[in-house]
Amino acid sequence: QEVWITIGSMLVKMEREKALELLKKDQQQIEQQINLIYSDQKVLVNKHRDLEFKSPFSGTHLKPLEKKEFDTLKAHLPLL
To answer: Could you tell me which SUPFAM superfamilies the record lists for this protein (predicted)?
Structure first.
């Protein structure tokens, strides 16, 4: 089965499996870039606060739970 996918400003017709693979790769790359921006932002905020002689924000070194960790936690906690 072929599907239409937008690449830039073009519409391209390709096989569904290949389109899904392409979208998954794009999603992974975007998530990596977002995580890099978040980590850089945390460093810059703490550097700025250091220049203002303030203590760093608490909790800026926390990382979000991955889906697998969240699912495990959700499975073992009672629902409220």
So the answer is: Prefoldin (SSF46579)
User: How far apart are the C-alpha atoms of 58 and 7, rounded to whole Å?
Assistant: 41
Q: Quote the domain boundaries for residue 62.
A: 2-76
- At CB < 8 A and 24+ separation, what contacts does 36-40 make? none
Give the Cα separation of 29 and 21 in Å (integer).
12
The Cα 54–Cα 24 span in angstroms is 41
State residue 24's pLDDT score. Answer: 96
16-72 residue pLDDT tens: 999 999 999 999 999 999 989 988 888 888 888 888 888 877 776 777 888 899 889
Give φ, ψ of 14 to 5 degrees.
-145, 170
- Look at the block and give the residue holding tokens 């992974």: 28
Contact yes or no for 31/40 (Cβ under 8 A): no
